[in-house]
Amino acid sequence: MHLTILCHLSHPDRRIHWQLQGARIMKSTREKITLNFRGIRYKTYASTLQAFPGTKLSRLTGPQEASTEFDYDPNTGEFFFDRDTRVFEEVLNYCRTKHLHCPQYICKSVLEEELAFWEISEAALAPCCWQRLSDMESQQEDLALWEDSKDEDDQALLAQVGRGNNSCRAQWQPRIWTLFEKPFSSGSAKVLAAISLVFNIGICILFIKKADVEIEFFVYGHEYNSTDTVLNEIHKYFPYLIPLEFFCILWFLFEFSVRLTFCPNKKKFLTSPLNIADFISLFPIFIELCTHGQAWLGFVRALYTLKLLKILKLIEIPLMFQVLSYTSRSVFREIFIFIIIFIFESLFFGILMFYTEVLYPVPESYFESISSCIWWAVITLTTVGYGDSYPITEFSQVIAACAALCGVLTIVIPIPIFLIKFKGYYDAAVIKERRKRKMEQAAMLSS
């Protein structure tokens, strides 16, 4: 203290300088800065803005930088910003409390843009807001993936093809394609859809009837030959089956040819699973007419049942199946992993059960081979439990209990993963459909 007093006494000018400098520092830290956001004014201390050096807010406290870098009004002493006030309020609270939170109702892209403007990293967000941010990011990714995965709309393709083309085919293509693919677009489309539905149901009934006749002929008549050919006596006793089936196939051939001819996207049409099934199902009747009937054609005729899926077009729920398809592809890796785990469990418990029965043989044992043990393991792991084979010894029963428990866990764990993905894609698909309808309504009103 003595030296300090001497210094102050011997250097009065230096003491005055230190006092002025301290007062200037105190004034700069307690100085209030006014920020104008679209007419809404915020006042805060300069020390609050200086909490994070290097950010845009900290540069507002520098008189030289602030006047040149920002929109500063010397008359009112305000800095004007045309930015979102919700994010700025959280940023200002972040400078004051050192905790950055996310506004409740804000899009993730807006949050990222505003934080980038204020030069603040997203990593500074509080842990309580990361879950909400993660949910927003996942919804955005699902919507983007659904948008990317969807091909160009058929009507847009038709309009693009028909633009500048005055040919007869270009004029009729949108009408005919809509007639066959949009069952609710007009009265004629509804009638055509009803006729197609009758043929689809009819071909399935014929398939079931013909399968019963063939099985009855083979099993009870015992009429076989070396080439596994169905004898023509079936057609002699049931002469109406082939003509009716042939008539239905002619309708399907006509329908498939028209749809293929006027389809705006041939690649999409030919790679559709239902269209592939339609194409394959056209051939069994012609093969039978040429070869006098083959028993294995019954397997190909089973594709007739897939035609019943066209009923879904009449009740407008193909969107759910599209979402189901994209969901299955998105979780293919997880499904593959669980399939590998299931195969391992089946082999492990099957082999374990087999050697347990070998070590402790009992006369009434149901497990005679390793394949039968693996079959039992698959049935137990899937919690089906036919009851055709079951363990007898106590040690085998313990193994069976462990297998059943592992099967329950293996089946239950993938279900939430699939449901979460399905819900995300379904919500994205519904949003897209609503946007599409709104855009169509807006286009109709503007026209």
Automatic annotation (TrEMBL):
GO biological process: action potential; protein homooligomerization
UniProt cross-references to SMART domains, sorted A to Z: BTB
GO molecular function: delayed rectifier potassium channel activity
GO cellular component: axon terminus; dendrite membrane; neuronal cell body membrane; postsynaptic membrane; presynaptic membrane; voltage-gated potassium channel complex
Domain BTB, residue spans: 31-135
Topology relative to the membrane: Multi-pass membrane protein
Annotated compartments: Membrane
InterPro entries, sorted: BTB/POZ_dom, Ion_trans_dom, K_chnl_volt-dep_Kv, K_chnl_volt-dep_Kv3, SKP1/BTB/POZ_sf, T1-type_BTB, VG_K_chnl, Volt_channel_dom_sf
Pfam families found in the cross-reference section: BTB_2, Ion_trans
Ranges that cross the membrane: 191-208, 237-257, 335-354, 366-386, 398-420
Record keywords, A-Z: Ion channel, Ion transport, Membrane, Potassium, Potassium channel, Potassium transport, Transmembrane, Transmembrane helix, Transport, Voltage-gated channel
Gene3D superfamilies: 1.10.287.70, Potassium Channel Kv1.1, Chain A, Voltage-gated potassium channels. Chain C
Primary residence: membrane
Protein name: Potassium voltage-gated channel subfamily C member 1-like
Gene designation per UniProt: LOC114589360
